[in-house]
Amino acid sequence: MEKLLIKGGKPLHGKVKVSGAKNAVLPIIIAALLAKTPSTFDDVPLLEDVRAISEVLKCLGVKVDDSVSHTLVVDSSNITDCEPPYELVSAMRASFLVLGPLLARKGKARISMPGGCAIGARPIDIHLKAFEALGVKIEQGHGYIVATAPNGIKGATVYFDFPSVGATEHVMMLASLAEGKTVLENVAQEPEIVDLANYLNKMGAKVRGAGTPVIKIEGVSELHGAEYTIIPDRIEAGTYMIAAAMTGGDVLIENVLPEHQKPLTAKLREAGAVVEEDVDRIHVVGSGKLKAVDIKTLPYPGFPTDMQAQMMAMLVVAEGNSKVTETVFENRFMHVNELIRMGAKITTEGRSASIEGPAQLTGCFVRCTDLRAGAAMILAGLVAEGQTEIGDLHHIDRGYENIVEKLTGLGADIERIENENV
Ligand code: UD1
Questions:
Q1: Which atom of ligand 1 lies at the shortest distance from residue 49's CA?
Q2: How many whole angstroms from 165 Cα to the centroid of ligand 1?
Q3: SS3 102
Q4: Ligand 1 atom closest to Cα of 120?
Q5: Residue 96 has what DSSP assignment?
Q6: For residues 251 and 285, what is the distance between their CA atoms, to the nearest angstrom?
Q7: Which residues are CB-neighbours of 89 under 8 A, at least 6 positions away?
Q8: pLDDT mean over 407-416
Q9: Which of 66, 137, 296, 380 is spaced 20 to 30 Å from 286 by Cα?
Q10: Separation CA 50–CA 30 (nearest Å)
Q11: How does DSSP assign 152-175, residue by residue?
Q12: Parallel, antiparallel, or unpaired: how do β-strands 137-141 and 144-148 relate?
């Protein structure tokens, strides 16, 4: 087991380059299953989740070539299996999205139920309801889902009870190879949805309206591989924006789309940080004294739930009382107890957390309880007095490429070491 050691108190300075988006690349790699010819992806982040999804595809007979750094070639010309192994699917929820493409290509797919996860129950009812509307027969039992389409996959109009990101992506993929037209209403509008739609269209699909609440898809009979470059990771970029603001630093963040950062940019400015936007760069200067702000997580273009933990770490050291409300996931406050151990003054009630700031954080041993909570621990460590030790780093490895190197490049005192005691 390894741990991070951070000596806090150093303002960050310099430039950092954001990697390709984890949440865009995962569904896009899965969508390559829909094509009978290979796809080549560029700006693929080097992450544990990408390696895991590659393993899932390889088990289905797909050839995945990652010999060139940050490039992935996915060849699904010969799918030999339509049942991904339980161990791999249960380890990463996004792998559930292979169900639709496998069904579209092979006429049948069997997958284990994705199960719960630390941040909430995360059901799949919206996925399955939409699949059934498109003519898919779903059988559930013994922990598995079997999907067949005895009469073919047929376009339909589907209203989503909630704009689920995964369900929107999943149904977009399936509908691309359905017979006739599909209209999806009240869907997710996240930038990753637009990225997937752009890739599908490059493959020969006819998807219109991605990025709005209504997506229209004209089904086609076949899709081909395509070359595609993944968008920058808005959550990774946002994490460095907060790091700059809360350490009182001065950081130029490169390979970022300012449009995608709007909800965070607005809150950082409200808190007193200086944020300047360029075409594909953002410059953040921390004023040294940040003010309390309230945030409420919502589907895009609202404040992202994936930035909630990192924002909370910042608000802990901001002047005044802040309120953080989490509306997307029911149990996404696991970082609170870890922050309290470092000296934060936070009380929670249901889905709201009240933060009394500023607190002087003090370094101690904390754990990453999930991916973004782990990022929050690093941010807290950057401003804490003394040394912070962070364990359970596998969560961080899922979604932050070279975070130690990138922060070191900005002047942080951070290192990753072997830890026999964790
Ligand atoms: C994706 C992101 C994740 C992010 C989340 C919300 C990926 C790989 N992951 O996850 O980082 O935090 O969007 O922005 O892109 N729900 C249902 N029924 C369903 C599906 C979802 O009730 O069938 C609920 C979930 O329990 C949750 C909410 O909808 O409370 C949002 O989930 P969803 O948008 O589907 O998130 P994911 O796609 O799993």
A1: 8
A2: 5
A3: helix
A4: 26
A5: G
A6: 7
A7: 56, 95, 96, 111, 112, 114
A8: 98
A9: 296
A10: 10
A11: --B--EEE-SS--HHHHHHHHHHH
A12: antiparallel
What is the 8-class DSSP label of residue 147?
E
pTM of the model: 0.97
Provide the token pair at 148: 């067949």
Please report where in the chains the tokens 């992450």 appear, as a residue.
47
Three-state SS at 335: helix
Q: Give me the long-range contacts of 136-142 (CB less than 8 A, separation at least 24).
A: 136/103, 136/174, 140/113
Helix (H, G, I), strand (E, B) or coil at 421: coil
> Distance between CA atoms of 31 and 25, rounded to whole angstroms?
10
* β-bridge mates for residue 319, sequence order: 291
Minimal-distance CA residue to ligand 1 atom 15: 23
7-48 pLDDT tens trace? 999 999 999 999 999 999 999 999 999 999 999 999 999 999
Cβ proximity of 382 and 4 under 8 Å:
no
Number of Cβ atoms within 10 Å of the Cβ of 150: 9
Residue with tokens 């977009």: 172
pLDDT tens-place string over residues 195-231: 999 999 999 999 999 999 999 999 999 999 999 999 9
Rg of the chain taking only CA atoms, in angstroms: 22
Cα gap 111→46, rounded to integer Å? 26
For the chain, give me the number of helices (H) and strands (E)?
Answer: 14, 23
Q: Does residue 368 have an active-site annotation?
A: no
Which residues line the pocket of ligand 1, CB cutoff 6 A?
Answer: 23, 26, 93-94, 120-127, 162, 164-167, 188, 192, 305-306, 328-329
72 and 65 in contact (C-beta within 8 Å)? yes
For residue 173, which phi and psi values (nearest 5 degrees)?
A: -65, -50
Best mutation site among 49, 98, 186, 328 for ligand 1, i.e. most ligand atoms within 8 A of its Cβ?
328
For residue 115, pLDDT beyond 80: no
Set 59, 82, 117, 368: catalytic member: 117
CA of 266 to the centre of ligand 1 (A): 24
Strand order in the sheet with 387-391: 365-367, 387-391, 2-7, 413-418
What one-character DSSP code corresponds to residue 299?
Answer: S
Atom 30 of ligand 1, residue of closest alpha carbon: 329
CB neighbour class for 69 (10 Å; exposed up to 12, middle 13-18, buried from 19): exposed
Whose CA is closest to 73, among 60, 57, 91, 84? 57
Check residue 113 and give its pLDDT. 84
